[in-house]
Design a protein that fits this description.
The protein has an eight-stranded mixed β-sheet, with helices on both faces. Helices cover about 15% and strands about 35% of the residues. The protein contains twelve helices and 37 strands. The protein is α+β, with helices and mostly antiparallel strands and about 675 residues long.
Length: about 675
């Protein structure tokens, strides 16, 4: 059944503009105070004169008894708000003193949430990467690179700055800041390991430290290891290697034993679903056993959160929705507490969402944070008719919306968003979403249809309200297009096997899954078979390029930062080892034939007749610009109508306001021209 569109106010006749899309403020990174009374969060927006995103930090009463207060003015990048253990002060990073260089600050709050001026705590050259207030209240763990030496500065000034590959990226080290003296000491026992994350045992015990052998993503993510560090002495105990893409270490206690859990790709795989991996750290030496706590589950963990000494909370992607789970310490299995509740009432109206004792209806959750006791949580919540906002409430109970970062959206008319369920060609049950043109119903079809394919491939289109330059379904719906948000195999939300099937087989089942959804919409009279388009970014860009090499059904395509040659991607992309696993082989496997050639859109460029818009960031290291250049030259060689646009200074996504505006307008104009 369709959800109602986000409900506008009675006089809502405004149409969506590109400016509203890119200037929409979004809440990020909620952090609830240990005592559960206050919630800090960031708000990111294109508010600066330089056309780049800026962020501010806000604080709100968790029970909604007081309006949110802005603690920083939004003229700098203020982020990563984390609470002191006594809930009386807030630590955050800000680049106010030097743009692009984050330093640690502290804001003292009184009992009402009122605050004083931010107190600078660091002035390191190069800044800091992250921070973790420790349980003693006197120490903050810092993640920071070494400060440049006089020799480093001389070489930079003189242009004597040749890179030696493998030593060209600075190592992030674990450092401990004494708040009373300002003295920073480095934990030397980790050597030159690159530290990526820290979690202290809730009783004030050791720090769990996650590190890589090198700052490079490839091979860094394949070399992750866990360590224990004594904060008083800096002594290090190595627990040994952990899995691919390891993250989010959390402690928990049961039957006299401390456990240490983390997220990582399912053991034994480079491509597949995330899993929760658990171990009991020994008194000395490496960990003996690592146990997968999510084996056999048909849902996928997305976040893992520490709760005092009790079992951890977790968010799981569950099809189009997100569910809150808690680990049962006896069975060592996760049990569902609730799903994201639906939001009754008018779009943007503050209120309580869900009812006590019920699990609510579909939606998505992210950014989970819990009080020390675990009795109260805060989270970012969105449904099909409510944009993402900060919510708080009792764990597993009703949630109260605290933030309202985009009130201007109430004036806009939106397309109805429907949940889709259908079967793949082999009978597998799939899901997806359909956005109808603004003000139109299914009965008025068929409509021109644009299929938006998500990136990843381990990602998904969730049943939430999304409005960005990449997830631009509502932007296209405003112009009269129906939009199909496809969730093919390889994505999250359906367990490990669903996600792992694309290893070495990209463009196989995931492509036929997309095609099955399009065929369904054509058969139901929603989509005009003569006016089909396809678009995607990153892995979605790969699938858009793949699609037009497999069929002539699409009359227009947009490839954003897409992979066109898996062999080249494995050799030059920063996720090379994973890209090799997806593509199936590398160029150094021998003279061929190679599996990655069969899986690469560039190999089928001679078949393409569909007009293509290619968008790419000049400084993209994830999918290097050469992928787009390669495809452009092939299309030019075969006389295919296309336009190739490069955005200066941009990486894998577009951050500058002018570039986001250009991409939105260019994408819609491309479909207007060809569909």
């Amino acid at each position: 059944m369709p959800h109602p569109a986000p409900r506008p106010t009675p006089d809502s006749t405004h149409l969506l503009t590109a400016e509203l899309v890119v200037d929409m403020a979004a809440p990020v990174a909620p952090a609830i105070s240990p005592d559960g009374r206050l919630v800090a969060y960031g708000v990111v927006a294109n508010s600066g004169r330089d056309g780049r995103p800026h962020s501010s930090v806000w604080v709100a009463a968790a029970d909604g008894s007081a309006a949110p207060r802005r603690l920083t003015d939004g003229t700098a990048r203020a982020a990563a708000a984390k609470w002191a253990p006594d809930s009386a002060s807030l630590f955050l990073t800000s680049d106010r003193e030097e743009r692009g260089t984050a330093q640690l600050q502290r804001i003292l709050l009184d009992g009402s949430g009122d605050s004083a001026e931010a107190e600078p705590l660091t002035s390191r050259r190069g800044g800091i990467g992250d921070h973790y207030p420790l349980a003693d209240g006197r120490t903050v763990a810092l993640l920071a690179e070494d400060e440049p030496t006089a020799e480093d500065e001389r070489r930079e000034a003189e242009g004597d700055d040749a890179w030696v590959w493998g030593r060209h990226l600075p190592v992030t080290r674990l450092r401990l800041l004494d708040l009373a003296t300002g003295v920073v000491r480095t934990v030397d026992g980790l050597g030159d390991r690159h530290v990526v994350e820290v979690a202290q045992r809730p009783d004030g015990g050791p720090l769990a430290v996650l590190s890589w052998a090198t700052p490079e993503l490839d091979p860094g993510v394949t070399t992750a290891a866990l360590h224990l560090v004594a904060p008083e002495t800096g002594a290090v105990q190595d627990l040994g290697p952990v899995g691919f893409e390891a993250r989010s270490p959390v402690w928990w206690h049961h039957d006299g034993e401390w456990h240490l859990a983390h997220l990582a790709v399912t053991p034994g795989h480079l491509v597949g679903a995330l899993a929760v991996i658990d171990t009991v750290p020994p008194a000395t030496g490496p960990a003996v056993e690592q146990r997968d706590l999510t084996v056999g589950m048909s849902v996928c963990p997305t976040e893992l959160v520490q709760v005092a000494d009790g079992p951890p909370l977790a968010l799981f992607a569950d099809g189009l929705d997100t569910a809150l789970y808690r680990l049962d310490p006896r069975s060592l299995r996760f049990r569902r507490l609730s799903r994201a509740p639906d939001t009754p009432g008018t779009f943007g109206t503050p209120g309580t969402f869900g009812t006590p004792g019920t699990f609510g209806t579909p939606g998505t959750l992210a950014g989970l944070t819990a009080s020390r006791s675990g009795d109260t949580l805060a989270v970012l919540l969105s449904t099909a008719r409510e944009p993402r906002n900060v919510h708080a409430g009792p764990t597993g109970g009703p949630l109260l919306r605290l933030s309202d970062t985009s009130p201007e959206l109430r004036r806009i008319r939106w397309g109805v968003q429907e949940r889709l369920g259908y079967q793949a060609s082999d009978g597998l049950q799939l899901d997806g979403l359909l956005i109808l043109p603004v003000g139109r119903t299914r009965d008025e079809g068929p409509f021109p249809l644009v299929t938006l394919v998500h990136g990843g491939p381990y990602f998904r289109h969730a049943d939430e309200f999304t409005l960005t330059m990449v997830d631009c379904g509502q932007w296209l719906a405003t112009a009269g297009y129906a939009v199909f948000l496809a969730n093919p195999r390889g994505g999250s939300g359906h367990g490990h096997e669903f996600a792992a099937v694309v290893a070495g087989a990209v463009g196989g089942d995931e492509w036929t899954d997309i095609l099955a959804g399009i065929d369904l919409l054509v058969a139901e009279g929603v989509a005009d078979p003569e006016r089909l388009g396809i678009s995607g970014w990153s892995h979605g860009g790969f699938l858009a390029a793949w699609a037009i090499g497999r069929t002539g059904r699409f009359k227009a395509a947009v490839m954003g930062a897409g992979i066109t040659d898996w062999g080249m991607q494995a050799g030059t992309g920063e996720w090379g080892v994973m890209d090799a696993a997806l593509g199936g082989s590398t160029g150094w496997n021998g003279p061929g034939p190679h599996l990655h050639d069969r899986n690469s859109p560039i190999s089928y460029a001679s078949r393409i007749r569909t007009p293509v818009l290619i968008l790419h960031g000049e400084q993209d290291t994830n999918v290097p610009l050469g992928q787009a250049v390669h495809f452009h030259r092939a299309l030019r060689h075969f006389g295919v109508e296309h336009e190739f646009v490069v955005y200066p200074r941009e990486g894998h996504g577009l951050n500058e306001r002018a570039h986001q505006l250009d991409a939105l307008r260019r994408i819609r104009a491309w479909y207007d021209r060809w569909l």
